[in-house]
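Justification of resources, computational component.

The compute hours requested in this renewal are based largely on the per-chain cost of generating structure records like the one below. Each record pairs the submitted sequence with a full structure-token output. That output is archived, and it is also reused by downstream analysis tasks.
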Amino acid sequence: MGTITTDEGSKAFHKAFQMAKDSLLDVIFIDEGEIEASQFFSLTGDKMNQWRSLSVESNSMADVLANMQAQWPPKLDMLHLDAGYVDPSGEEEIVLFGGTPAVGLKDIRLTRVPINPASLQLSSLKSLHLNGITAVTATEVIQILADSPTLEILRLNELHGADLPTGSTTTKPDLSFGSAPLAPSFIPFLGRPTTSPPSESSIWLLPQLEIFESNLAWTDSHNEIVDMIKRRHAVGTKESSPELYEASPKRFREIRLANPKDRYPIPSSLGKFMSDVVQAAEGADVYWQGRRWTE
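The structure output for this chain reads:
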């Protein structure tokens, strides 16, 4: 396996490219060096069939990604795109790789890029991190999760503007939603099976999920978050009936919570909320705003 990156300068880049031969490649483009995006992707694009991972950091993401909208790299299993602090809401939406389904992708991290992850037709993910993605709706997020039952890591940040259309549904599994902000609508679906047992279609969303991170923990969603943690952890106890489900959810080992920048909790309510989270987490590591919470 080899690495092709702009981070070490033009000479190192060309040397790495020449030595790549037929090995799988980790492709890294950081838009602050002496190599232009057009030159970088013109060369690396010739070896697209060897890409194992692609990481891009750029404040001009639309210009960079314009160089790679033709086809899907068949061996790509990790995609990280970071547009820094650019607000993507006013930018034209980008469709990557000609709209080809992202077959084989296991790890995706999108930060403030004008891309709707639903357009990648994601499935079978192991890790999903969406930060500041304005083009996605809560319904589409739920659909991605439903199509990725083996997801282990979920991080959703700054998605609190996404609303669920009234009466909309997903197809896998059969879920229906009302009109409400993302957090109150989305979080409860992690805390209950899709249908009541003993239905054969009774499954839990993301049974493999062990790390949960969200900055959607404003006051209105405190009860939903605590209840979701309690319910998922309770299914694994002797008092529950895990045999009723195709796959019972794993217990969380890490829970990271925060508030959106424009919503600050009342200190007294935050203390009670985090105390309830710690109690419900039953030994999992709990964090608030990036710092481990201790009682």
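The longest strand covers residues 51-57. The two ends are 45 Å apart (CA to CA).
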